[in-house]
Amino acid sequence: MGLARADDSLLEQRVQEELATSDLPFVITPHKVNYLLPVTYNPSPNLQPFIAASDQPDTIQLDDVEAKFQISFKFPLWYNIFGDNGHLFFAYTNKSWWQVYNKNASSPFRETNHEPEMFMMFNNDLQIGPLTNSLWGLGLVHQSNGKSRALSRSWNRLYATMVFDSGPFAMETKVWWRLPEDEKAYFGDPRGDDNPDISDYLGHVEITSAYGIEQHRFSLMLRNNFASPNRGALELTWSYPILGNLRLYGQYFNGYGESLIDYNAHTQRLGIGVSLNDIL
User: Fold this and answer.
1) What is the pLDDT of residues 98-116, one digit of tens each?
2) Number of domains into which the chain is organized
3) 144 assigned to active site
4) CB within 8 A of 78, min separation 6: which ones?
5) Does 277 reside within a domain?
6) Alpha helices, DSSP H only, in 60-215?
7) 278 in a domain, yes or no?
8) End-to-end CA distance of the chain
9) 54, 96, 107, 144: which is the annotated catalytic residue?
10) What is d(CA 13, CA 1) in angstroms, rounded to the nearest whole number?
11) Among 123, 152, 168, 273, which is disulfide-ready with 194 (CB 3.0 to 4.6 Å)?
């Protein structure tokens, strides 16, 4: 993503760059940020799910330093469904936490979350104070960690999103409703809801804002369950270009729901690495 002037819209730049490459073969369009954090630090790794699922709980060991990465892309399936508006997309996001330095446990992937989604976006130009409501959308998303039995976590949601922007500032608001699942008939039942209380921790609302200062990009994600006790989350990121599209990337997370396996455990993580696309 190129450098924006102070009065340029970061969101408009993103849209124009996607349109310029959407019809090119062998071009993958980023969806969320693609990044690699070779070093992240979590002072209190969550051992409980692995202890509960193990025949040898005393042998479970997790390093507080691990790698984390995210791969996220989307494909336009149909532009301008309703005349000159309404664009249908398929997207996939893979986020992984890798105990690469844990040689005693053969450096396993501690957790991987898979997130395919189908969504439709609509262009808009509603002015609300200094902000323009440039996009709104509806989607269906599935999220799972691909594991079985006691370590299985998954949920399905319908969501609605609105994107606002003004020059170097952009903000996305997202609300969702979890599709209900049947209860498990007995403990260990492979069918039924693996995490019936996940909405108590991840709530129904998420707000992500981004801001550009010269070549620096900052983002802040806030999530809240609006209940007592409060089990919200925040994520701060910063990036700066270092070579072509490669950016130095820092990330800080504090709260619940960083990963599915840790959805009900408080996590605090700081990581540094690189990203392959901008935050918008």
Assistant:
1) 999 999 989 999 999 999 9
2) 1
3) yes
4) 87, 88
5) no
6) 198-202
7) no
8) 9
9) 144
10) 8
11) 152
Q: Is 163 a member of any domain? A: yes
**How would residue 24 be classed by pLDDT, with cut points 50, 70 and 90?**
low
Identify the DSSP state of 145.
-
CATH number of the domain residue 130 falls in: 2.40.230.10
| 1 lies in some domain | no
Asked if residues 160 and 140 have their Cβ atoms less than 8 Å apart, the reply is no
Q: What is the pLDDT of residues 221-240, one digit of tens each?
A: 999 988 888 899 999 999 99
Phi-psi region of 2 (alpha: psi -120 to 50; beta: other; left: phi over 0): beta
Calpha distance 120→78 (Å, rounded):
9
What span, in angstroms and rounded, lies between the C-alpha atoms of 74 and 31?
Answer: 5
CB 22 within 8 A of CB 30: no
3-state helix, strand, coil in the chain (%, to 5): 10, 50, 40
- Cα angle 256, 30, 7 (rounded to 5 degrees) comes to 90
pLDDT at 26 (0 to 100) = 53
Structural domain boundaries enclosing 109:
10-182+191-272
Report CA Rg, the chain. Answer: 20
